[in-house]
Amino acid sequence: LSICSRTVEPLEYYRRFLKENCRPDGRELGEFRTTTVNIGKCLCSITTADGSALVKLGNTTVICGVKAELAAPAADSANKGYIVPNVELPSLCAERFRSGPPGEEAQAASQFIADVIENSQMIVKEDLCIANGKLAWVLYCDIICLDYDGNLLDASVFALLAALKNVQLPLVTINEETGLSEVNLKQKNPLIIRKHPVATSFAIFDDTLLIVDPTAEEEDLATGTVTIVTDEEGRLCSVHKPGGSPLTGAKLQDCITRAITRHKEVKKLIDKVIKSITPK
Q1: What is its main location (predicted)?
Q2: What span, in angstroms and rounded, lies between the C-alpha atoms of 125 and 139?
């Protein structure tokens, strides 16, 4: 298979590999790229964050920083805090992105992350309330892609979860005499993570063939994509399918089954890294 054919007829080039149940990078159709995660203090670049993580999925590299601030709850949600996710795709991460206001893909990714947080109940907003109607935590979750090579959503959800697992919030009380908040930086508690959502993305080729963890090239050649989000109980939190080829019920069930297996792999990886950085 010549490099020329990959340039001139990339889809036909891919099809030759797919017929042999493999891909140009040597992976099987259901095989993920090498996945690594670094959490917290090892990320010297964002020491100002209250929690941080860097995830690599093959070449795709995503960093997440969580900043916690205090604010008054909304009038119609007096007992709830806020979670504000934002995905950035700067021009440095790939040629296809431009500097300036967030593009359509970044906005769609931010909305996807917001939906995952809401649907999975990974963080219950009531847990972020400090004093009903008076004070609550706001978690600003900035997810920045440093290197884009496909499957942004899986890497972003993974980085978000890992960063949130790393957050330590100081004890905050309200002085009854002055009505002012008092922050005790010496007494910190980990954020309460209720669920651990993990995303698993697939590209659909020629309307029928499913490949997991697509690269940017594979996403461009695919006739559709689908992302499945599950939690540790195997519960389906989200199915994200932005148009493209339809999926049969059987194919969708195959995706969900693979996503549940992937969840166990990711959770095991996060637990191992957190254990390694936890003081004995």
Answers
A1: cytoplasm
A2: 10
DSSP 167-191: -EEEEEEE-TTT--EEEEEEEEEE-
One-letter amino acid at 195 equals K
Q: 56 vs 18, 61, 147, 150, CA distance in Å?
A: 25, 4, 9, 11
Structure confidence by residue, pLDDT tens digits, 189-203? 899 999 999 999 999
pLDDT at 184: 83
Cα angle, residue 164 at apex, residues 141 and 58 outer, rounded to 5°: 80
CATH architecture for residues 27-277: 2-Layer Sandwich (3.30)
Tokens of 105: 């893909």
Helix crossing, 104-120 with 152-165: angle to 10°? 50
How would you label 244-269 residue by residue, b for 16+ Cβ within 10 Å and e otherwise? ebebeeebbeebeebbbebbeebeeb
pLDDT tens for residues 12-62?
A: 888 889 888 899 999 999 999 999 999 876 554 566 788 999 999 999 999
Q: Where are the alpha helices (DSSP H) in 88-187?
A: 104-120, 152-165
Give the integer Cα–Cα distance in Å for 253 and 120: 19
Q: Which of 73, 102, 72, 100 is nearest to 85 (CA)?
A: 102
Give the Cα separation of 33 and 155 in Å (integer): 11
Residue pair 267/198 in contact (Cβ under 8 Å)? The answer is yes
Residue type, 265: E
